[in-house]
Amino acid sequence: MARKDILAVLITMVPCFLLFSSTSAQLSVDYYSKTCPNVEDIVRKEMIQILSVAPSLAAPFLRMHFHDCFVRGCDGSVLLDSTKINVAEKDAPPNLSLRGFGAIERVKAKLEAACPNTVSCADVLALMARDAVWLSKGPTWQVWLGRRDGRLSLAGETNELPPHQENLTQLIQIYAAKGLDLKDLVVLSGAHTIGTAHCSTISNRLYNFTGQNNSNDVDPFMDKNYIAKLRSKCSPTDKKTLIEMDPGSYKTFDNSYFKNVAKRRSAFHSDWALLTDSFTKAYVLKHADGFESEFFQDFAESMIKMGNVGVLTGNQGEIRKKCYIVN
Ligand code: HEM
Ligand SMILES: *[C@@H]1O[C@H](CO)[C@@H](O)[C@H](O)[C@H]1NC(C)=O
Ligand SMILES: *[C@@H]1O[C@H](CO)[C@@H](O)[C@H](O)[C@H]1NC(C)=O
Ligand SMILES: *[C@@H]1O[C@H](CO)[C@@H](O)[C@H](O)[C@H]1NC(C)=O
Ligand SMILES: CC(=O)N[C@H]1CO[C@H](CO)[C@@H](O)[C@@H]1O
């Protein structure tokens, strides 16, 4: 299916989300049509420029939107800096590897110049994540807008993010707590078709899976050749080196994540775990074998759903002037 057709399908599907998703009731696709009609053009133009200079930021923007939505809802709390009296989400261990905060401030500043005090940081991030996927040759979708920014960010709450060592039972519970189902879990995991991970994140799978810290203590569910390949890149104590999560096409949003998972060549135990349930396994195997346009359509749907998690609307929260600090 051509990309234009996918877009058409998405637009015709959009009303279903209104009917079935109560949290989306106050978001709308034309939220800024009167107050900031060029919002999408401004974000897209900036994104094209940012990614032409720093292409590796596409994946971090997508991941940042996910981290925002899973902690306190999509309210921009991930963007707030710590203060003298508070440690923010940004400074919690799961955020060690988040990048691109400066670029988000630049896009927000452009929007403040065009339409002051109007577009929330939470919406800016949702738009940037969408454009990051599109510019990585993935699908696009209509972003529902009208999120307001929260005023609180607590490092401790990042424990609501899914840990990469988890088995499926726990991942399902973590997603369910956000109103996301088994299909969203397998589909959104496909985001790992772009981006990188730190050696330190995966070193336990390579050297210390059960805590014995010896050369045989590997994750038994990872392909042996792939373990050897990763070990050649990552020493046991390496904290800096990055590995491509989808080797060879980590800059392209495609369905190769599912090929990797099917071959037990995925970065995380949580990716492998998708093979331990009959529904998610069937999804992985089907999409390892093609059906990219169906994955693209599913990804767009699940991203819209994730973008609705715990949003602030109406008079809740505020519209931040700068994303790193409350007004
Ligand atoms: C089962 C749930 C998930 C787990 C356990 C998980 C875990 C992780 C971890 C540990 C990293 C690498 C961090 C590092 O070492 O630098 C990562 C990277 C990434 N994740 Fe996830 N993730 C999950 C779901 C998602 C979702 C839902 C999205 C987006 C929709 C996403 C998007 C990304 C992206 C794009 C990267 C690459 C970031 C970069 O290149 O800097 N992940 N994830
Ligand atoms: C998943 O992990 C939990 C806690 O570690 C454990 O109780 C459960 O049995 C595990 N489930 C599977 C299928 O391994
Ligand atoms: C190995 O794993 C154990 C248990 O998870 C952990 O306590 C220990 O710090 C790890 N050792 C290394 C060198 O990472
Ligand atoms: C783990 O093993 C490596 C050698 O494989 C060693 O250098 C390191 O000190 C060990 N770490 C711990 C905590 O035992
Ligand atoms: C604990 C820690 O390393 N926190 C980091 C979180 O991310 C920000 C922005 O990249 C870093 O400045 C912090 O050091």
From TrEMBL:
GO terms for biological process: hydrogen peroxide catabolic process; response to oxidative stress. The lineage of its organism: Eukaryota, Viridiplantae, Streptophyta, Embryophyta, Tracheophyta. Keywords: Calcium, Disulfide bond, Glycoprotein, Heme, Hydrogen peroxide, Iron, Metal-binding, Oxidoreductase, Peroxidase, Secreted, Signal. This is Peroxidase. Its EC number is 1.11.1.7. SUPFAM superfamilies: Heme-dependent peroxidases. Its cofactor is Ca(2+); heme b. It catalyses: 2 a phenolic donor + H2O2 = 2 a phenolic radical donor + 2 H2O. GO terms for molecular function: heme binding; lactoperoxidase activity; metal ion binding.
